[in-house]
Design a protein that fits this description.
This protein has helices at residues 2-7, 46-53, and strands at 10-14, 26-32, 36-44, 71-76, 85-91, 98-106, 109-117, 120-126, 130-137, 148-152, 159-162, 168-172, 182-187, 195-199. It has 203 residues and is mainly beta.
Length: 203
């Protein structure tokens, strides 16, 4: 049984956190009996996707029509040996702020993760009728003015607005409960690479 288990191919990928623009984004990779993987990365407009889906995000649901053409490269496993488990962090060739879907494939194996490079940090406080959002540049600590804020619960957005010069946005809603909503914040000119931040539950 143990010999058969060791002969099985294994590969998993994971992203540990959001990366800042001054860092090289890393992908955590665990493989066994895999010499190398074909890598692809699609840059996506996460702000448009969030508006369309209202906070309900699934990598598998992102279609080719809403993403840019993929960049491709080959990732060879260092120190490969049959039956040996190799666990490592590998650099991703992604430049600037933005969001990417990264796929690793080998034969019939295929895995995808969402990679975000952003300097935008967000603090939220929610009540049933009001959302308080503070956005700041995590590298400088300064407030992030004029950032777009969307609050949603998995359907149509419940409220939207922009941060002021102090990085604060306060949204109110007479109907609907905001206390368990998702919050998405993006900053950057339309059509340009965007800094983004996502808060999954803000009670």
């Amino acid at each position: 049984y143990r010999i058969a288990e060791k002969r099985v191919q294994e590969h998993t990928i994971a992203v540990q956190r959001t990366w800042h623009t001054g860092e090289k984004p890393l992908l955590h990779v665990r493989t066994r009996n895999v010499e190398g993987m074909t890598m692809k990365a699609w840059k996506i407009n996460l702000a448009d996707y969030f508006r369309a889906r209202g906070g309900s995000f699934s990598i598998e649901d992102v279609t080719v029509e809403i993403v840019e053409s993929a960049s491709r490269w080959t990732d060879l496993v260092p120190g490969y040996a049959a039956y040996k488990v190799v666990e490592r962090d590998t650099e991703l060739p992604l430049a600037g702020p933005g969001a990417w879907i990264v796929e690793a494939s080998e034969a019939e194996f295929r895995s995808k993760v969402l990679v975000i490079v952003s300097d935008l940090g967000v603090v939220t406080k929610m009540t049933p009728s009001q959302a308080f959002v503070f956005a700041a540049d995590q590298r400088t600590g300064k407030p992030y003015p004029n950032a777009d804020v969307i609050v949603a619960t998995g359907g149509a957005p419940l409220a939207a607005g922009k941060t002021g010069a102090d990085g604060v946005c306060v949204l109110s809603r007479a109907e609907g409960d905001l206390s368990g909503a998702y919050t998405f914040v993006s900053a950057g000119a339309a059509g340009s690479p965007q800094h983004v931040a996502f808060v999954g539950s803000t009670e």
